[in-house]
Amino acid sequence: MKYKSQKVAYWFFALSMLLLVLQITYGFIMGFARIGMDGLHEFIPFNTARAVHTNLLVVWLLSGFMGAAYYIIPEEAQRELVSVKLAYVQLISLAAVGVAAIVGYHFNWWEGRKFLEIPRQLDYLVVLNVLLFLALILLTLFKGKRKTTTALVLTMGLLFAALLYIPGMLPFDSQVTDSFFRWWVVHLWVEGVWELIMGGILAFLLIKLTGVDREVIEKWLYVIVGLTFLSGVLGTGHHYYYIGVNKIWLIVGGIFSALEPLAFLAMALFAVNMYRKGEKKHPNKIALFWTLGAAIVSFVGAGLLGFAHTLPQTNLYTHGTLVTAMHGHLAFWGAYAMIVLAIISYSLPNMTGRKYYDGIRGRVAFWTSNIGMIGMTMAFGVAGVAQVYLERKFGMEFMAVQKEISIHFVVLIICASLFAVGILTYIYDFYKHGRPTDEALEKAEHEYL
């Protein structure tokens, strides 16, 4: 850690860990409900649990991205954050909005729009929160001694993510028009600008962990940015197949969705090549595990599994089934959750001065969570394929099919338990590092760079 203000990142990461535990808890509530153990239904019906589960995913990842920015930007800009107090104000307001939204969902206070359920009144508070965050990051970057490509790509991703929140706030009377612009937020976040955020964090970590020259690594970033915009923007079309828009989207969506794995393939090749070129052996192997793991698993989950059901001919049958859940779980895990866990694993010893990266806990957390997630993906996949055949090919009723495939959710819960053990081990390791301290200033960087 080079600057005192980087300690702000710790509290954003701590908030992420808390929200991740809550997200997993609501995932278990849904999983048990699927096999008939729905004792909480009166208090937490399935639709509420689903809304909380998916929205918590977004919030804990955003908190992780913000923490990453508060750690990376001061170091890249070579100066302290412009205002630490305002960063803490932003953290508290983010947590307050998140708690209000989660509590509100349990009292049917929401908009009912998938992935964007947050009530409109809270939308305005989210906008104010994000504007404050961007002001702090942009001012720090503007006043800094240098403006690196890594910092600019990360900032560009965060800025575009904020701008793309606005289409989701526009009121429409038409369900079709509302869905059309809702996907501008959901798709262009996760398959567009969030990839820039991932690319920026990935580049920072590879510079620190491999010792490869910054110019070499940042040239790859231009390739990733180009591929992301080429495929991600018009790839939104695969969400427009069956919502009532013009049929041209079948062609546009089909072609550009097929190109979307290229950006993730570039990131995987990028990370592996930089690791092989690296001459310095950084002792924080756990951070390296998460970094390389994020690049490789995102290519499989977001790239290959996404491609498997985005072509119109396939999507006709798989649309809205558990095949989507299969792709979604591994894609979010690989692309965004693992990169957040990677930057936490790298920055935590630097902020606290406690080097626990050689311990067994870190390896147990990495392998059990990944094996658990792969098991969950396979359970969703098998259940999804069975659902497609029974429901879409043989015409069975939806609820009858759900009963037939319920056995796969038993497997899912077992794998999810293994995943939860990995995450809880990671969080215990986070807790054991303790709080950040000024004694950690400069220590790590002087030793390894």
From TrEMBL:
UniProt keyword list: Electron transport, Heme, Iron, Membrane, Metal-binding, Respiratory chain, Transmembrane, Transmembrane helix, Transport
Start and end residues of each Cytochrome oxidase subunit I profile domain: 8-449
InterPro entries (alphabetical): Cyt_c_oxase-like_su1_dom (IPR023616), Cyt_c_oxase-like_su1_sf (IPR036927), Cyt_C_Oxase_1 (IPR000883), Cyt_c_Oxase_su1_BS (IPR023615)
Transmembrane segments: 12-33, 53-73, 85-104, 124-142, 149-166, 186-207, 219-242, 248-275, 287-310, 330-349, 370-390, 405-428
Primary location recorded for the protein, binned into one broad class: membrane
Compartments, record wording: Membrane
Domain of life: Bacteria
Tagged with keyword Transport: yes
PANTHER family assigned: CYTOCHROME C OXIDASE SUBUNIT 1 (PTHR10422), NITRIC OXIDE REDUCTASE SUBUNIT B (PTHR10422:SF43)
Entry's family note: Belongs to the heme-copper respiratory oxidase family.
The protein's name: Cbb3-type cytochrome c oxidase subunit I
Species, as recorded: Aequorivita marisscotiae
Lineage: Bacteria, Pseudomonadati, Bacteroidota, Flavobacteriia, Flavobacteriales
